[in-house]
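Help wanted!
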Amino acid sequence: MYTWVMDRAIIVDSLVKNFEVAQKEPGLMGSFKSLISPKKKIVHALKNISFTVQPGELVGFIGPNGAGKTTTLKTLSGLLYPTGGFVEVLEHNPWDRNPEFLKEISLVMGQKNQLWWDLPAIETFELNRAIYDIPTRIYNENLKELVDLLGIGKLLNTPVRKLSLGQRMRMELTAALLHKPKILFLDEPTIGLDIIAQQKIRDFIYDYNVRYGATILLTSHNMDDLVNLARRVIIINDGHILYDGAFEELISKYAKEKLIKARLSNENNISDLGSIGKIKKLSFPEVVIAVPRSAAAMAASELLQNFPVDDLTIEETPIEEVIRKAFKSEYKK
Amino acid sequence: MRKYFQIFKISFEEEFAYRLNFILWRFRNVLQILFTYFLWSTVYADPTKQIFGYDRGGILTYVFGIIVVRALVLSARAMDISNDIATGDLSNYLIKPINYFKYWFSRDLASKALNFSFAIVEFILLFILLKPPFFLQTNFPILLAFLVSIILAILIYSLILFLISSIPFWIPEIGWGSHFLVTVVIVEALSGSIFPINIFPQLLQSIILATPFPYLIYFPVEVYLGNVTGWALVGGLMTAAAWVGILWFLLKIIWQKGLKAYQAFGR
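Answered by r_m:
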């Protein structure tokens, strides 16, 4: 088909996905109405999405709820039938659900579990060993490795329902990775976890990507996940791709300013601070001034010379704000 | 094959995690058998009287046969498929290299194995307690035909469950309503698990015999009793086999369409 096909783990071209959703007016009367004449609404979840991913890439998907992130992952893993467009993952059409394809992928959803609720996690692992035809020696090696990396050795024989959310998530990851998938789809892997558990999962994902050269697609609302993991981000909003590229470029494209945060020792000349740059916040002794990227060093030295500064830092615009800006620029169009 | 054996094994273990639930379920079965037993025992109080072509020994063997055949045919877990579809848990299976129906069939077999072993114990206990006249079939060809009819019955019941459980692809909120209607009301009434089908008028009998339901309980028990022989036996087995084919074909079509409508709910 294409000569460069082998370089791509994932090809998505003009992907469209529509859902039919039943509508119901509020209240009891609404329920009766929907019983007699059900109303269906077409929801356009993905409107013409195109991108490719190379083997070994770690790509983060950002976007508000309902933007189409999860729909994209579900289509790539063969769960959803595309309304239109072309999708190819590891040279397979995901929808065919060829066993050869399924053995190479895994999908972990932060809010869905595959573990058997009333049995210890080790039982699910054994079952997956049989399902994925993993030879015993390799299974034992993989299991030991994952158990060590995730620190779950003592919990293997505890019924899943008695595990905490963070412990369960680590078990979920183990169950999903025993067959060493080449492509890993992670949907909100850190949702609902405390900061330490989040960090453990994040370290693990990073490590897994580097160690096995696995291709990882990850969606998250948690900016820390993306800052720490994704070298490339795809911003999706309302079924469109707004931005697809390196994380650093996203910042230089949308974050045209840097922030100077200073701590003042007294209130002399405080009214002249506006000459340095745009004052974002002023509540003595703290002041935050936004200045153009290129002029940040100049502005800082000017501030140090002319004002009673105790302490000073230059920071990047917070990533949340960068993304908010990216979305805003879309709405203006 | 090994993966499905593993599924069989883990399902077995899971049933044990719900011990109390399981014991209550068996208790319900015993009550139902007792109820049916005393009903027919009273109707056939006179051992020489024949009603609907059964004598006392025949009808009570029928009731006792139900214990074992019910455990083999009607023990299943596949009704949970509808829940998998409605909640999106189906996704967990679709992304794995397994056949979803074989998965559930393995789980059903585990449920049958467990229920069957309990049914044997109940059978022996009730037998000692009630001392009914019981007809022991010794004719080998008939026993073989009985075995075939049981296998067909198991396949038909699993296929019916798979089909009924597919409705949530289009109506995710259907829940238990459809199952109650089909597996509780229709199956119980038309399969012969409460009374034999030949107590119905002739016309109604013919109609019921054209549906898949009597091949679940009534037909296998009748085969065991030796009441169906010759061409009637061959015809019955062929009808049951035809139903397996028809239901299988329907299931294939419905799942092809259903999976395209599937929305992988739950996020």
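OP: Thanks! One thing I noticed: The interface with chain A takes residues 2-3, 5-7, 10, 13-14, 17-18, 88-89, 91-92, 94-98, 259-264, 266-267 of chain B (CB under 8 Å).
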